């Protein structure tokens, strides 16, 4: 078992979930989004860089509740001849409510299934586990075309927990299409993300 190391590798991908719940024009919770992240994990005594990719969806089932899903993968730079990859599948529920015009607070609980695979080109070792992520955050329309937000997440997987914090902004080209930028940090992992989103409500 890779155990705690697996959590550190997977956390680099799970940190992306901060950006999936935090931003959208008129605070819509009905969208499909693609995310790319540049990730640095410094939890192993040296900086280990990675590229992260995720596809996220959210669908409202009532005025204040939405169902969310995420599929993602992280590819780490080769280090000492070792390749490290992680994959993640999430499904969750988001509760949200307005606290002022153009401002929502939200909370998300997601079940996470993650797998980490380490290979030296000859032998491959993998580890997988199922855990959860709890996220709380704030979304605010700063103007007609710009949304800002912040969120805090706690992931519990591979018999360990990790915390992360993120901030970001989203610019709307129109009511349906937007581009987001986010910075997330926690547990020796930093990520800068760019995302494209399509609202369908």
What secondary-structure arrangement, pairings included, does this model have?
Layout: H1 4-14, H2 17-20, E1 31-41, E2 48-60, E3 65-76, E4 83-100, E5 103-119, E6 124-141, E7 146-157, E8 160-172, E9 177-186, E10 189-199
Antiparallel strand pairs: 1-2, 1-10, 2-3, 3-4, 4-5, 5-6, 6-7, 7-8, 8-9, 9-10
Can you give a write-up of this model?
The protein is mainly beta and 201 residues long. It has a single domain (4-199), classed as Lipocalin (Beta Barrel), CATH 2.40.128.100. Helices cover 7% and strands 67% of the residues. It is built from 2 helices and 10 strands; from the N terminus they run H-H-E-E-E-E-E-E-E-E-E-E. Strands 1-2-3-4-5-6-7-8-9-10 form a 10-stranded antiparallel barrel. Strand 9 and strand 10 (189-199) form a beta hairpin. The longest helix has 11 residues, at 4-14. The radius of gyration is 17 Å and the shape is globular. Mean pLDDT is 86; it is low at 16-25.
